């Protein structure tokens, strides 16, 4: 699941937006990096454009190119900038204690995923004690809103106009299949609004289920989500409500830290 972002049209996209797509693609490609051709394909850019952007970013230290493989990777300047930004945006210190508590109480793996644009990115994780794991989530992985339980939980609690705009302009079926049609996603969102928590019934990887609850900022907007993932045998119809209530309780506690 560590593949780059899904293809995106470059029609009318600004240079800054293209740079953002390139950097996120390299981030999703993880340690092995990505070729110029792969970056171009996954960003929906002509190959010469992708190469020019990558070369310019390398000159600024924002990306590196492996001399042996020719693959591009995130550069050292991003680490330095990220370290400076961490003091303002890092929410994982408090969350890690919450994740450890969730994992200990349930035996499942617990995660914190943050809202970034129209995606969620996993910021922190804590493995549970149950030996069978889903292996869908890991730190750094991104999903579009509406895909996986964290993205469902956040999308369900965005202002209605923003959620409607997203659904009207996003076709998740291109990459994620008919199980992510607008009708299907709307049905899961309605269920999440009714219960307070979102459920991913094995739609990203067969047999791997997830439950998530949104964490809100001081203005009442969803900024992240706590989730638990595991195999279907552990996420029974009887147990899911208990997991959901536990997530809601911990998400409420994290939300209060912003108020």
From TrEMBL:
InterPro entries: GAF-like_dom_sf, HTH_MetabolicPath_Reg, Tscrpt_reg_IclR_C, Tscrpt_reg_IclR_N, WH-like_DNA-bd_sf, WH_DNA-bd_sf. The keyword Protease does not apply. The keyword Secreted does not apply. It comes from the Bacteria. Transmembrane segments: none annotated. Residues 13-76 form the HTH iclR-type domain. Gene3D superfamilies: 3.30.450.40, Winged helix-like DNA-binding domain superfamily/Winged helix DNA-binding domain. It comes from Pseudonocardia yuanmonensis. Keywords: DNA-binding, Transcription, Transcription regulation. This is IclR family transcriptional regulator. Residues 77-259 form the IclR-ED domain.
